[in-house]
Amino acid sequence: MTVSPALPGDRPRRTELSRQALGVGAFLLAGVDLVRYVATPERVHLAELHQLAAAVGAVLALLLRCHRPVLVLFLTLPGMALSGMVFATMISLFHVALRRRWQIVAGCVAAASAVGLADTLLTSDALPDHPGAWLSLLVYTCALAATPAALGAQQRTRRKLAADLRTLRRRRAEELRTAQRLAVSEERNVLARELHDSVGHAASLIALRAAALRARTDEATTARDAAAIHALSRQALDEMRTLTGSLRADAGPATPLGIRELPQLIERAGHDGESRIDLAAAARWPAEAQSAAYRVVQEALTNCARYAPGARVKVTVASVDQDSHLVIEVHNGPSAQPPAPPRPGSAGLDGLRARLAALGGELTARPTPEAGYLLRAAIPARARPSGNPVADQRSGR
User: Fold this and answer.
1) What is the DSSP string of 275-298?
2) What is the rounded distance in angstroms from the CA atom of residue 39 to the CA atom of residue 43?
3) What is the CATH number of the domain that holds 394?
């Protein structure tokens, strides 16, 4: 199971929408200030056109607030001094604090406070007459400039913390995935060791006993059977080593058995019959498809030996329809000897169906009219990788 960061999927879109809404709100706020100025009848006459130009320029300058916030601030100061456009200056101070270092922010706050204080003093009819009034005026002017700067700094810190939190969650998720991969790798190593120690030991003893029996016996049939047992046990050992090598994390990629190995598999099985295998298909089909074809033939031959001993077997592996499908057919006739009693379950065929389904193929298993059995598999050309390199179960029908 993969753990992903617990972040809402629509968070970037919501953030962008909120930023656009804030931008629209900023323009509306500055527009209200402009409308308030224009709506004053005594303000609009030829002697004060420069004040109107300063007010309009302060609002239009906000278009650059995200890219040139310091420049925008100084473009809004004339509007504040000549026309009383306070909101445009406050918005620009917010964006300065959001995007620039604190030294620049402090300088901009000082400049805006100085302009605001000078404008108040120059346009006021009477100057403050005692120190308390001067202090109140100074605090009010500085607070008017420092408040939007503080809000911008707070928003900047919030965005940085949110970005750090997202980074932390991504790293945590990566650490969890790494820990899961290490746990799976350790499990595969343990499985490989157990498989090698238990099954490998038993298969090695079978091979040694078969070789010893072949060397001691004088009977041709017994010697041939012992040789077949020895060959099959050696094959099982080779396949087990291939499997355990693919399970180990420190091992390189194992070379899977494929179409080229089918003639040896059929020969070792010792069935009477014929085979038609397109060996040239090994160069045209991927390793996953070839490995599935090998397992289909292997399972079919195993079931033939168990349930139809002595029957003639026909094996066909070929590309059909201009290499659109790889078709594997194993057809056995009626049994020449009493078959082994059937075992419950069909894990072998179920495993083959799962392997072929992962590749986009299908498996058909049915009896034939002449009391035989047909196992047919078809794998499409665009075979999907199974994603399960350890799906090589073999068992009864």
Assistant:
1) EEE-GGGGGTS-HHHHHHHHHHHH
2) 8
3) 3.30.565.10
Quick one: average pLDDT of 83-97?
81
- The lowest-confidence range among 43-47, 212-216, 345-349, 370-374 is 43-47
Q: Which domain holds residue 320?
A: 258-397
In a domain, 294, yes or no: yes
- Of 123, 155, 175, at which residue does a domain stop? 175
Token output for 113: 């406070």
Whether 173 shows a pLDDT value over 50: the answer reads yes
Phi-psi map region of 323: left, alpha, beta (phi>0 left; psi -120 to 50 alpha)? left
Q: Is the pLDDT of residue 329 over 80?
A: yes
192, 248 Cβ separation under 8 angstroms: yes
- When pLDDT is averaged across residues 308-335 and rounded to a whole number, the result is 88
- How much of the chain is in helix, strand and coil states, percent to nearest 5? 65, 10, 25
Sign of torsion over alpha carbons 85, 86, 87, 92:
positive
Q: How many domains does the chain have?
A: 2
- Orientation of helix 220-247 relative to helix 131-216, angle to 10°: 170
Q: How far apart are CA 368 and CA 333, in angstroms?
A: 8
Is 81 inside any structural domain? yes
* pLDDT value at residue 168: 94
Residue 39 predicted with pLDDT over 60: no
With a CB cutoff of 8 Å and minimum separation 6, the contacts of 147 are 90
Q: Per DSSP, what are the bridge partners of residue 348?
A: none
- Tokens 């993969």: give the residue: 2
- pLDDT higher than threshold 50 for residue 380: yes
Residue 34 belongs to a domain: yes
Mean pLDDT of the 327-349 span: 75
- The residue type found at 247 is L
Assigned domain for 364 exists: yes
**Amino acid sitting at position 80:** M
Query: Do 346 and 305 form a contact (C-beta atoms < 8 A)?
Result: no
Which of 46-60, 129-143, 248-262 shows the highest mean pLDDT?
A: 129-143
